[in-house]
Amino acid sequence: MATQQQQPRVGYDDTPFIPGQKYRVHDSTRPQPRVVTPGTESTQERAGRPPSDAVILFDGTDLSGWVANPRSGSSDGPARWKVENGYMEVVPRSGGIRTREEFGDCQVHLEWAAPAEVVGNSQGRGNSGVFLMNRYEIQVLDCYDNPTYADGTTAAVYGQHPPLVNACRKPGEWQTYDIIWTAPRFDGERLVSPAYVTMFHNGVLVHNHREVLGPTAHRKVTPYEPHPPVGPLSLQDHGNPMRFRNIWYRPLNLHGQA
Ligand code: MG
């Protein structure tokens, strides 16, 4: 009887090559996929656990992985948001924060909750934002029964693309974002390839390989400007006490895949 230790040879070496690839169909020499232990799902009561190869950006205990973000209304220095009960909370008008980690292509997971007590409307209600590479905003907003302009709704690529659907939970409930980010590529001053985003909000597809048109701006679309291949993830202080928990990413190389 074959055991795992014996590693019986599997596959074939007399089959045709797969078009565009260096391996044959069922190739016996093709490397096995890397093993990743999956995480666990979050519940309303408790954050889940990240998969085994995730880089943890916020585990609910402290803001050691974060600093104030001068690009988002802060002066340099420590992040000044509050941490309690396993989440961080925006201290309104303290300014945005960003990660110390910098990365390009990635899978990002984060969870957020808008205040249970509804205050304001449209863009004034439960507003924050997730900025990939500190430039490209995925909107965070409480759009549960809260109309606003479509390209500024929850999970919109702000000012560019509304989400496919509005998958908001009620204010006060925890919501999940799972984002697959393909960073833009530059050759000197020239844009070689724009950024793309695929994304789930509360497990519902809201963007499928959506082309990002340029860095986020208000009331206009601005062209790409060259920037380094990695950048921090930042969170916006838009004046509302939004909460975040369980933030992690997995580095990817989406241009390197066959
Ligand atoms: Mg925002």
List the helices and strands and how they pair.
Layout (H helix, E strand, L loop, with lengths): L54 E4 L7 E3 L13 E3 L2 E3 L7 E3 L6 E8 L14 E5 L3 E5 L34 E8 L2 E3 L2 E4 L2 E6 L2 E8 L22 E2 L7 E9 L7
Antiparallel strand pairs: 1-15, 2-5, 3-4, 4-15, 5-14, 6-9, 6-15, 7-8, 7-14, 9-12, 10-11, 12-13
The site of magnesium ion has 7 residues, from strand 7 and strand 8.
What does this protein look like?
The protein has 258 residues and is mostly beta strands. Helix content is 0%, strand content 29%. It has no helices and 15 strands. Strands 1, 3, 4, 6, 9, 12, 13 and 15 form an eight-stranded antiparallel beta sheet that branches. Residues 127-129, 139-140, 236, 238 line the site of magnesium ion.
Overall pLDDT confidence: 95
Q: How does the helix and strand content classify structurally? A: mainly beta
CATH superfamily: Exo-inulinase, domain 1
What series of H and E elements makes up the topology? Answer: EEEEEEEEEEEEEEE
